[in-house]
Amino acid sequence: MTQLFDTLGFIDASAARAGAAAATYDEAAGVAGSASAAAVSLEHVGKVFATPRGQAAALRDVTLDVRRGEVFGIIGRSGAGKSTLLRLVNGLERPSSGRVRVQGVDVGALDEDGLVALRRRTGMVFQHFNLLSAKTVFENVALPLKIAGVPKAERVRKVEALLELVGLAAKRDAYPASLSGGQKQRVGIARALVHDPEVLLCDEATSALDPETTQSILALLADINRRLGLTIVLITHEMEVIRAVCDTVAVIEQGEVVETGPVWRVFGDPRHGATRALLSTLVHDLPAELAARVQPLPEQSALPDGAQVVLDVRYTGESGGEPDVGALAAALGGSVRFLHGGIERIQGHAQGRLVIAAAPRADDAGQSPARGGAVAALLERARRHANHAEVLGYV
C-alpha cells in the first residue's frame, strides 16, 4: 500500500513543503521543457537488478523520445522490461546507467520532495485498479487531493468534473465491489487525473478486461488525449491495443528496443522478428482449407492446365493512397480470383494483405516456371502495384 501511495504522489507532506517541491519541479520543467519537444525521454538507459544468481539486466541501452501530446505505446512479451521502464519514468526505480527526463527534468536527480511533485504531474493507471474497497467512488478519486491538503470545496468541484469526464457521475456513492471491471478502471483513470498531470502512464490498463470493455477504455483514453492534450505512455502485450489508440509504438525484446516508429509503419512493414511475432495474431493467415489446396510450384515442368499461381500481395500504406486493386487485376490479366485477405486503415494509411490467384498471360505461357519465366513475369507485374508480393504456390 505504501508503494501505491508513493506511485500516486500521496506522500503525507505538509502543504507548504509539497507546494515548494511542486514549484521547484515546475520551474525546472519550464526551463528544460522549453528546449525540448519531448514529454518523456530516455537516453541510453540501462537497469540492472541484483539476484541470487548475479546481476540481471532488465533494460539495455534504451533510447526513446515521447512527443508532447501523443499516445506512445510500449509493447513486448512478458518479462521484456516494459514495467521496469515505466517505473523509471515515475521515479520508483533509478536507472543503473543513462538518463530519464520528464518534461526535461532529470528524474534521477530529484530528491524525495521533487519525486512527490513529479508523481503528481505524472498520473498512473494500474492493471488491477488498486481501489480502496472501503471508500466510495467519490472518496477514491478525492483521496489524493485530500492528502495533498486541497480544500474540500475545490476537491468536490474537481472530483465531480472528473467523474463526469469518465462517465461515472451516477456512481459517485457506489463502492468498488458493486462496479464492473470497466467501471473500476474508469475510477482509476479519474483518480490519475486529479492533479492535472502532464503525462499519464498506463500499466497494462486493459489486460484484465474483456474485449468490449477494453475498447470502451481505449476510446476513453483517446478522448482524454484529444480533450486535454495529455501525453499518454502505455505498456501492453496486445497489438490490438496499440492499433486502436497509439500514435507511436516501441517494441521491447529482452530489455532492448528493437523497433520503433509510427504505428501505421510498424504494422504495415514490421522489420524485426519480435514485432512480426507480436503481429501474428492480427495477420490474415490462410484458412486451413485454403492452405491445404495451395500446392508448391513444380520444379522442372510447366504448371498443370488450368492452374493459377497464388500470390501473396501486401500493402504497407507507404504510398498514402488507397491500393488500386483494379490496376493490379488489369496488370495480371485474364481471370484473377481473390482468395483471402483484406485492407484496413491505420492512422489514415490503407494497408493489408490480399491472397490472389492468377494465370500467367498467353505471351508467357511457353516459358518454364522452373526457369523463372511465366511465374516470374506474373510476380513482377504484381510488384509494380503493391509494396510486397511473393508466390505461395498454385491452385
From TrEMBL:
Which positions make up the signal peptide? none
Gene Ontology MF, one: ATP hydrolysis activity
Family, per the entry? Belongs to the ABC transporter superfamily.
Family annotation (PROSITE patterns): ABC_TRANSPORTER_1 (PS00211), ABC_TRANSPORTER_2 (PS50893)
The keyword Nuclease is assigned to this record: no
Q: Which UniProt keywords apply?
A: Amino-acid transport, ATP-binding, Cell inner membrane, Cell membrane, Membrane, Nucleotide-binding, Translocase, Transport
Q: Could you name the Gene Ontology cellular component terms for this entry?
A: plasma membrane
Q: Which CDD domains match?
A: ABC_MetN_methionine_transporter
Q: Identify the species of origin.
A: Burkholderia aenigmatica
- The protein's role, per its UniProt record: Part of the ABC transporter FtsEX involved in cellular division. Important for assembly or stability of the septal ring.
Q: What is this protein called in UniProt?
A: Cell division ATP-binding protein FtsE
Q: What is the lineage of its organism?
A: Bacteria, Pseudomonadati, Pseudomonadota, Betaproteobacteria, Burkholderiales
Q: Where is the ABC transporter domain?
A: 40-279
**UniProt-listed InterPro entries:** AAA+_ATPase, ABC_transporter-like_ATP-bd, ABC_transporter-like_CS, ACT-like_dom_sf, MetN_ABC, MetN_ABC_transporter-like, NIL_domain, P-loop_NTPase
Q: Which SUPFAM superfamilies match?
A: ACT-like (SSF55021), P-loop containing nucleoside triphosphate hydrolases (SSF52540)
Q: Which GO terms describe its biological process?
A: amino acid transport
Highest taxon of the lineage: Bacteria
